[in-house]
Amino acid sequence: xxxxxxxxxxxxxxxxxxxxxxxxxxxxxxxxxxxxxxxxxxxxxxxxxxxxxxxxxxxxxxxxxxxxxxxxxxxxxxxxxxxxxxxxxxxxxxxxxxxxxxxxxxxxxxxxxxxxxxxxxxxxxxxxxxxxxxxxxxxxxxxxxxxxxxxxxxxxxxxxxxxxxxxxxxxxxxxxxxxxxxxxxxxxxxxxxxxxxxxxxxxxxxxxxxxxxxxxxxxxxxxxxxxxxxxxxxxxxxxxxxxxx
Length: 245
Prior knowledge:
This protein has 245 residues and is mainly beta. Helices cover 7% and strands 34% of the residues.
C-alpha cells in the first residue's frame, strides 16, 4: 500500500519533537521507496496500479512500446479501451462510435459497436511484449443502450475467438498463416440483465509463447435474433490480455 502520513496535516510545527518511532518509520519508508534515479529490483507484495493520467514511456513509440517491458511478471495484465484501435483488421456491420453516458454502461467513450445482426469484427492485440506467455484474452462488453437495447436475449449469442498470425517463409506457402488458438467462447450471460450490463467474455487456458514473429488478433461475432430485429447491440469496451513469465 502507499505510505501513509505519520501525523495529520498541520501537526508538523516549529520545534516539534520527532520521536524515535517516527524516525524509524521515515527510514523504513525511504528504504522501500522506488529509486527514480538509479533504478533497482523490486518485489511488491501487491499490484502497483497507476490512476489519474497513467504512465508514460518517454522516447519510444509504436511497436517499441513492447520493448519498454524487459520482463513479464506472473499475473501481469495488459488492458486498453477498444476505441483506442482506430482501425480494425476487418469488419462488416461494426463501427467505431461514441458510447454516450445514456447507455447501460454509463460511460462516455469511443468503442467498437455492432450495427448489423450476426456480423464480425477482427481487432489486433496491440502492444504485446516479445517475451512471456499469453494465457488469457478477455473483452469487457455491454449493451450499447438506446434504440439498440434488446428486449430479450439473442437467439444466437456473440462469440469470441483468438487468432495467431505467423509468416511462413517456406514455398509454396510463402505468406501469412492464420490459425485459431484456444477454444471459441460464447457470450456467458444467461439473463437479460446480465447481457445488458458490463461483463466480460474470455478465452482462457492459453499457453502462447510470445516472440518476434507472431501477431495476435481477436474476432467477435455479433448476436442475431434479438428482439426479432436486424441490429446488433454489442459494445466492446475494454480488451485485456493476461501474461505470465
